[in-house]
Amino acid sequence: MQAQTSHGRATTLSLALTLLTIIFATQSQAQWDIQDSHTTASLRGIASVDAAIAWASGTGGTVLHTTDGGANWQRCATPPGAESLDFRGIQAFDAHTAIVMSSGKGDLSRLYKTTDACQTWKLLFTNPDKEGFWDAIQFDSPKTGMLIGDPVKDQFPIFTSINTGNSWSRVDHVAPYAGIKKADKGWSESIFAASNSTLLIYQNPRPHTLLQILFLTGGSRSSIHIVQNFDQPIPLLGGRVMISSASSHLADGPTAGGFSLAAKPGSAPGLLVAVGGDYQQPDSTASTASSCQWKEDGLSSTYHCGAAATFPHGYRSAVAYDAQQKLWITVGPNGTDISTDDGRNWAPLKPSTQDPPDADKNWNALSLPYVVGPKGRIGKLRPIHPPAERQPQKMNK
Question: 308: which of 126, 235, 289, 391 fits an S-S bond (Cβ 3.0–4.6 Å)?
Fold first, then answer.
């Protein structure tokens, strides 16, 4: 073998150091502390109020509640008539007040509310559409909230509340909201109720815009539908409204599309990250994440999304931004991934030697610092430290 020159040795050393840096950067350790939920229900709803208070929900009319950071999860009283309902979404306001949403065809989609720490529940609202199916509920303040479901007669049903969910009004039949329709005929577009995170309400970075509603779809076309409201908040049914849509650049197909959408707090202009894939092919990495940026182009203003350069390593059902650690985190049945560059590149979060071997897997929904999954699975995030931050061990010569 020909001897290397000093330049060749330097190049080889530089390449080796680069490879080591990549390995360290892409092998962070799983930081989910598994908690005891005292249930075997499949959990898809999770709402964190603060460091101590959180609520979770799932199949069999299950609602859980903690006031001590998850050290103890209490099983709530089951809402009346809800023993067989699938509670896929929950919104929590404090230690005593929460609204839970069930998903199912027609009147199996319902809202219940508690104001006494889930000792008792009140039925607030039942789906008026016999063919309807509710997918997500979100509040942008303690008073104003929105509820959305799969298309009914080619139109996404939208309901709003301005009194903490006590009453709801339909807006999709009111002009100009009636323009919020699914894709053209021949397309099958719907919303996935996998993690209650396909609907997003937040302040638009564009000047003079009060609120922006975004919802993420899948099926034959995976899109982000955008409703901008000027002059008055949308729940008041007033002001000027602009409706548009953008490709999410996520997978599409009968069981594929967008499953979760999140905005980066304080980003200007608005930055979104969307995740999804095909839930029937959980190990497929194709088109499982994208990053979206708000752009002004003459009279047009909307989000432009681009597929991630390095995808999460499988289908992902939920994504969230961790402002304290300045990273994005996404979860799914086959693992957890993180991104430190706003969703352009993702790296797996693997179990440490102190964690159960499956600590990174079998997750459905996020509300940081909590994550939930099937069979009563609940985890709580602790700070993520990649191996590169640990002191290297000395090698014996």
Answer: 289
- Domain ranges for the chain: 34-381
Relative to beta strand 189-190, strand 199-202 is unpaired
What digits encode the pLDDT tens for the residues 155-194?
Answer: 899 999 989 999 999 987 665 566 676 655 555 889 999 9
Closest by CA to 372, choosing from 23, 148, 89, is 89
Q: Which two tokens stand for residue 98?
A: 């929460």
Inter-residue contact 47 to 21 (CB < 8 Å)? no
Answer whether 127's CB lies under 8 Å from 79's CB. Answer: no
CA 209 → CA 78, 212, 227, 232, distances in Å?
A: 40, 8, 10, 9
34-381 CATH? 2.130.10.10
> Is the pLDDT at 220 greater than 60, yes or no?
yes
The model's pLDDT over 1-57, given as tens digits with 9 standing for 90+, comes to: 433 444 444 444 444 444 434 433 455 776 899 999 999 999 999 999 998 999 999
Q: How far apart are CA 262 and CA 109, in angstroms?
A: 24
**What does residue 139 show for φ and ψ, rounded to 5 degrees?**
-115, 135
**Dihedral pair phi/psi, residue 155, rounded to 5°:** -135, 135
Could you give the percent of the chain with pLDDT greater than 90?
65
Name the nearest CA neighbour of 252 among 272, 273, 224, 276. 276
